[in-house]
From TrEMBL:
InterPro entries: LOR, LOR_sf, Tubby-like_C. Pfam families: LOR. Belongs to the LOR family. Signal peptide: none annotated. This is LURP-one-related family protein.
Amino acid sequence: MKLLFRQRFFSWFDSYDIYDEQGRVVFTVEGQLAWGHCLHVLDGIGTHVGTVRERVLTLLPKFELYLGETYVGCIEKEFSLFHPRFDIDCKGWQIDGDFMEWDYAITDSGGREVARISKELFHLTDTYVIDVADTQDMLCVLMVVLAIDAEKCSRN
């Protein structure tokens, strides 16, 4: 399943709309005023389904992932010179990105591709295409993409 992740043009805090292949809003993401990034994920009818919360005062950026109110893991940027790498303690996933930080692949411990994320160029706001292999992983993949985007925003 493909998702289109598009940041809203006018918003005080991080806010995004995530669309399916038919152009319907599947998720809405609302930023909250907090130390570090705090992003709440709402489903298509407005029910809170997940949270991405940045831990502050860490050497490298670290984000906690919650499904509902349940902690499911975290993602932390690793020190690397030539291409971005992130360590995930959720579901045994691994992330590798390209040098320009526009394309990522998420794989499981067996090497199976869970998702592929590609940034679309020539848009006024951040826009990503997320291709998820299994729809059951859709929300967790979205939260990983949100954490990566928040890390990039903090750095820039």
